Amino acid sequence: FIAGDTAVVTAVFGPVEVKPQRILIDKACVEALYRPKSGLPCVHDRMHESLLRNTCETSLLATLHPRTSISIIIQEMQDSGGLLACAVNSACLALMSSGIAMKFLVAAVSCMISQEDKLLIDPTNKQLKDSKASLTFVFDSVKKNTVASHTTGSFTQIQYQESLMKCRNASDNIFSLYRDMVKKYASRI
Amino acid sequence: MSMEKEPVSGRTIHPVKYYRDFLAQNVRPDGRSLQTFRPVSINVGSIKTAEGSAIVKIGNTTVVCGIKAELAKPKAEEPNFGYLVPNVELPPLCSPKFRPGPPSDQAQVSSNFIAETLTNSRCIDLRDLCIVSEHLAWVLHCDLICLDHDGSLLDACVIALVAALRTVELPHVLYDAEAEKTVVSAEKRSKLKVHSEPVATTYTIFDDEILLTDPTNEEESLSSGIMTVVVQGDKLCSVHKPGGSPLTDAQLQECINGAMKRAEHINKLINTALKSHET
Predict the structure, then answer these.
(1) What are chain A's domains?
(2) Which of A151, A159, A161, A169 to mutate to test the interface with B (most CBs of B within 10 A)?
(3) Residue B33's CB: how many other CB atoms inside 10 A?
(4) pLDDT at residue B1 greater than cutoff 60
(5) What subcellular compartments does it reside in (chain A) (predicted)?
């Protein structure tokens, strides 16, 4: 999945056999692994992994595959801003193409609040350097409610609400992108 | 002496149904309503060998924070900045979920969250920690150890950290640049300047609909989603919702309002604890 200059590659394995220590009797065990472009995964990446894991767990119908595990492996290729959003979107596309049953699709949008209190959607790394706060929201496709939210920096309540609304509108673009991709993919079969 | 065995109850066999029955009456098994917070108790300055310390109890959740100061050379690309290193430890003592060995994923995520909260809220200006630019700076190691995990871990950690930081007293240091000698005066003097007081509040979503404030460990493990709001003054510092059931805008707003009110209450409590420590 490539958004501007940020690129992320995702692979989904599952439902496959799970190690006995991670076995869950009523649903599938969802694992997320995030590998940065260079170096070993660090503590910061663990946070990304936990966000991805929880988002994917709620969107998948995990109860259909008990005693199995579904692994989502994400490799960062290029980082030019909005990496977390890119990773979530690519994970969703990978899950769609794997054919595992999902309750809803998810779309992630990132935005930032600049030093002059301006709201910018999908900023690049250059723009992010001059920011007061950066926010990433993940929405579901059915009711457009917030599935996940991750913020850095401080902001007021009103700014939060405003960015939530704007990102929600932007997520419509991503959902229509998904639809176009599926049309292309499905028409080849 | 024989140990009395607890009768096998609905709580152990079918915990979800047990909770649902209670929530249908708008009350929780420990007697609280859905929006009530547990009582918080704070004690500061209990560890004498540390530069700053605090113990916080939210209901049964207990977190101890100890701050030790060390001298080091600042980074080349940031010569005016000191270091602030938070570390959250979840020992096997606090909950059956954790095993001895390297820090668990949850401990790492919590440490990361605390580090991000500190930078987001700009609670400590790292420039205050610098003694001599490019040569000497303070490193504050903040160790947060959980002694009992009964839910709302991040809340307790943030409160303990802020309370401990406000008690830190750093000794004066004389640095001779030519001779490269440092002289630390044993008499501790200046207090650390804390610019803002972030307060965290945790909520869980049960069954995709019901919002519970300040969950216990049992409620957290049964919930379908969890969310932490960090408030600082009248600004929001962080809204951390790592996946979990989708929430409507109205529910988000409710959480933020609740967090704001609680922040006032907690700040008053920290102030009282600090005053009684000084006297």
Answers:
(1) 2-187 (3.30.230.70)
(2) A151
(3) 10
(4) no
(5) Nucleus
Residues 6+ apart with CB under 8 A from B59: B38, B39, B150, B151, B152, B214, B216
pLDDT at B189: 67
E strands, A36-130, in order: 68-78, 106-114, 119-121
ipTM confidence score: 0.78
Q: Residue with structure tokens 């000084």?
A: B278
Cα–Cα distance list, A117 to A132, A162, A167, B34, B221 (Å): 8, 12, 16, 36, 39
B145-199 pLDDT per residue, tens: 999 888 888 888 988 888 888 888 888 777 776 666 777 776 666 777 777 888 8
Q: d(Cα B262, Cα B170) in Å, to the nearest integer? A: 30
Q: Which of the two residues, A63 and B146, has the higher pLDDT score?
A: B146
Chain A positions touching B252 (Cβ under 8 A) are 146, 164
Amino acid at the residue A149: S
For residue B168, what are its two tokens? 């830190």
